[in-house]
Amino acid sequence: MSNVADDSASTWLDQLRLQGGASPLLIVADNAAISHWSREWHDRLSHAGWSYRVRLGEVADAWRASESAAIADEALRFQARSMLVVGCEQVASVAADAAKQASLPLLTFPPSSSASHF
User: Fold this and answer.
1) Torsion angle in degrees (nearest 10) through CA of 34, 35, 39, 44
2) What are the pLDDT digits (tens) for 1-19?
């Protein structure tokens, strides 16, 4: 990796840490975010030595409460110390409920500005 890439990774991780981020990290994302960022998450977080897991956040109103509970349960079983949400507003809302249930800090980056952080 070049120094520029290392600097941007460091900046991104520093921003996560400033929001209360720590490893292990549970990432809750929509399909578009997973498709776009999964390789980058793997490269950056693995390089930094962070444990992480990515979970698709479901957003249908019919199972919103059960999805929030399932995400919170997964976070606790994974022993996550923080949760990052990347995606649409509905996924952010479900992840916020889950983070609250699991008593974890919820880290966010608006998808429109995510490109500058990776």
Assistant:
1) -40
2) 333 344 555 677 888 888 8
Rg (CA), the chain: 14
Q: Of 103 and 62, which is predicted with more confidence?
A: 103
The two beta strands, 25-29 and 106-108, are unpaired
**Closest to 55 (Cα-Cα) out of 30, 81, 80:** 30
Give residue 98's pLDDT: 96
Angle, helix 31-47 to helix 3-18, in steps of 10 degrees: 110
Task: Name residue 15's amino acid.
Answer: Q
Q: Are 43 and 4 in contact (CB under 8 A)?
A: no
- Output the pTM of the full model: 0.83
Place of tokens 């490109």: 115
With vertex at residue 7, the alpha carbon angle to CA 87 and CA 108, rounded to the nearest 5 degrees, is 20
Which one-letter amino acid corresponds to residue 64?
A: R
Copy the structure tokens of residue 44: 């950056």
Q: Whole-angstrom Cα distance, residue 8 to residue 14? A: 10
